[in-house]
Design goal:
five-stranded mixed beta sheet; 27 helices; TPR_rpt; transferase; membrane; transmembrane helix
């Protein structure tokens, strides 16, 4: 039958409320709950009982169910139990969902999710996410619907609950069905059925059978569709699930229509209609049934009844403000008017249907408009309007597609830029962290070098005192002891005193040498220039090497830390040259500028590989680096193993005004 496949898809109901209470009516349960509500004095028990009763009545008497739910919500002011609060808001949301109040349903279900999250009840959170997915499915907001269904699936997989995983797979399958991807929907439904069988979960199984039947129906696998519809009917009758039973009966009627058996279809439709009149109130599902009954009456040629059922379906659809239902109602009325020969009303109904179709699916204009145009040839003006409306709709659809494409590209570009920036920042932080770690390692090496150098200096100082000064003290003590010998004559005693005086002079010289090595007094009193000259004089006096010092271009003193650091660097470098380079002459030259002091140390000894300094395990080179870094001095080494001579060039930034103030000199 023309356009019937589309109608079959629209008839499909996607119902997967995942809560913790059953929905079958049982008078004994109702009476028991009513008795608890009247007699209990415990606020939490009363609140939960009110919600249980609201749950039991939400299909048979939705207004009464809503009143009970509101009463239960008021009781929550006295309850401090997150489980009961989460359940109460779930029931309130579901009752609003059944009554097609989708915004209110979304509000209360979100409050339920907040309570379950605060409690840490992931099973409750997964159930609420599935319910929120259903709300947005009915609002045709499939993006949010899929988001909540996916969140529900991830949450249920996190806790490893097969029952909840099956429910979430069921919900994801529903959305793919709505998006007309029947193969993918079937895949998720079959996974959901497998999980439910594994968990021995009968809850909502009849609804899963119903949706499997509808999917096979759309795929034209009618035997499989009949099997699952029949399974749904049997299980729904046993459970008293009148909603699923009514929908299954409607879909069996649709199946009969596909087989061109409108009378058999009406038998199924009438069974469903009886349920809606006596057991169940659900405007959405009832509008679906009325649409199907209109199609059946139209196929039987009963145009009056077909128009009556079509208009009733349209009235309910307008009440629901549901675009899918409005599309179906206007479509069937267009077919009815066309069969009656009322082409003007047929055109208007098709035009309305096309508007809703564009708003839902954003597809090209319907070919049905062109069919009506040929029959409506006496109304040329109206025909022209049809063409213009169709062209405008097509242009609008094209513009919308282009805007969506542009917007999507902008989002992709923005996300790519954000990812690029984040990656750059991450790499920058990694490099910075690596540099900091390297600096820490260098500082630790410097500290270790300084400590080891200090320890070596203490050892050398102790050795000098022991070997040099200690021996002299022993000799002096021996001489003095000889003075007490009465056998010594005056001449011998005078000789002993002379020798003691010579020992004291040697001790004085030794003390001065030790003090000079520790910290030259000349450096502190007179500055770097005089200290270096004294240092050179001491080495020159040995006759082993000649040191030439040129300090003519050095006019003022430096800061104390600068003078001490440079002196120690000169001392360390010269000692290394004497020890390793086999040099005959060393030149030390100072050149002072307004903002910089240049120091050059040259020798005529053997050259060396500069890179070997960086791999050296000794403390000398590390001490030099540490001291120069401390005073912010730059340095450069010029040497090569294939040629004679080496040079150390040091550039020290200075501030003459600051130096002068510290030294108490007016400039």
């Amino acid at each position: 039958m023309k356009n019937f496949t589309h109608v079959t898809k629209v008839l499909f109901l996607f119902f997967v409320l995942i809560c913790f209470k059953g929905n079958g009516q049982n008078q004994a349960i109702l009476d028991s709950l009513d008795k608890v509500i009247k007699n209990t004095t415990v606020d939490s028990i009363r609140a939960e009982a009110l919600m249980d009763l609201a749950w039991q009545k939400m299909y048979s008497d939705n207004p009464a169910s809503l009143a009970l739910a509101h009463q239960g919500i008021r009781e929550l002011e006295k309850v401090n139990n997150l489980r009961i609060i989460g359940y109460a808001y779930t029931v309130m949301g579901v009752v609003h969902w059944v009554g097609a109040s989708y915004d209110s349903a979304s509000y209360y279900l979100n409050k339920s999710a907040e309570a379950y999250l605060e409690k840490g009840d992931l099973r409750g959170v997964s159930a609420v996410y599935n319910n929120l997915s259903m709300v947005y499915q009915n609002k045709s907001d499939y993006t949010k619907a899929l988001m909540f269904a996916t969140n529900a699936l991830e949450t249920s997989e996190k806790i490893g609950d097969d029952k909840m995983i099956g429910n979430s797979l069921f919900s994801v399958g529903n959305i793919h069905y709505l998006l007309k991807d029947n193969p993918k929907a079937l895949k998720y439904y079959q996974k959901a059925l497998s999980k439910k069988n594994k968990a021995n979960d009968q809850h909502n199984l009849q609804k899963l059978y119903l949706n499997l039947g509808s999917t096979f129906h759309n795929l034209k696998e009618l035997d499989s569709a009949t099997y699952y519809y029949s399974q749904c009917v049997l299980l729904s009758e046993n459970l008293g699930d009148f909603k699923a039973l009514a929908i299954a009966s409607t879909n069996l009627g649709n199946l009969a229509m596909d087989q061109s058996k409108p009378k058999l279809a009406l038998d199924h439709y009438n069974k469903s209609q009886t349920i809606y009149h006596s057991k169940l109130k659900n405007d959405y599902d009832f509008s679906v049934l009325l649409h199907s009954m209109a199609k059946a009456q139209l196929q039987l040629g009963n145009h009056v009844l077909a128009e009556e059922f079509g208009r009733k379906s349209l009235t309910l659809s307008e009440k629901l403000n549901d675009n899918t239902r409005l599309l179906s109602a206007h479509s069937v009325l267009a077919d009815v008017f066309q069969e009656k020969g009322d082409f003007k009303n047929a055109f208007l109904s098709y035009k309305q249907a096309q508007a809703y179709k564009d708003s839902i699916f954003n597809i090209e204009k319907s070919t049905a408009i062109a069919d009506i145009e040929t029959k409506y040839e006496t109304e040329k003006k109206e025909a022209q309007i049809v063409l213009q409306a169709a062209e405008l709709a097509q242009q609008k659809a094209s513009i919308q597609r282009n805007l969506i494409l542009i917007f999507s590209l902008l989002i992709i570009l923005f996300l790519a830029s954000v990812l690029f920036i984040l990656n750059q920042n991450r790499q920058k932080k990694a490099r910075k962290l690596l540099l900091q770690e390297k600096e820490i390692e260098i500082k630790e090496a410097y500290i270790n070098a300084v400590l080891e150098s200090q320890e070596n200096e203490r050892k050398r100082f102790a050795q000098d005192l022991h070997d040099g000064f200690g021996q002299l003290i022993s000799a002096l003590r021996l001489n003095i002891s000889n003075l007490n010998n009465d056998s010594k004559n005056l001449e011998d005693r005078t000789d002993i005193v002379d020798k003691s005086e010579l020992i004291l002079k040697e001790m004085h010289t030794e003390i001065r040498n030790i003090a000079f090595n520790l910290m030259p007094a000349t450096l502190i009193q007179y500055g770097l220039k005089e200290a270096v000259n004294e240092f050179a004089h001491r080495i020159n006096s040995t006759g082993k090497i000649q040191i030439i010092v040129d300090t003519q271009e050095m006019s003022t003193r430096l800061k104390e830390i600068q003078e001490i650091s440079l002196y120690r660097v000169i001392q360390e470098w010269v000692n290394n040259v004497i020890k390793y380079a086999n040099a005959h002459k060393i030149t030390i030259q100072f050149v002072q500028h307004d903002s910089e002091l240049n120091l050059l140390i040259e020798d005529d000894g053997a050259g060396f590989d500069v890179n070997s300094l960086h791999n050296s395990s000794g403390n000398g080179w590390r001490n030099i680096q540490s001291r120069l870094k401390r005073i912010n001095a730059d340095f450069e080494i010029d040497s090569h193993p294939d040629r004679k001579g080496s040079s150390l060039i040091i550039d020290l930034p200075i501030d003459k005004l600051t130096i002068a103030k510290e030294a108490g000199i007016m400039v």
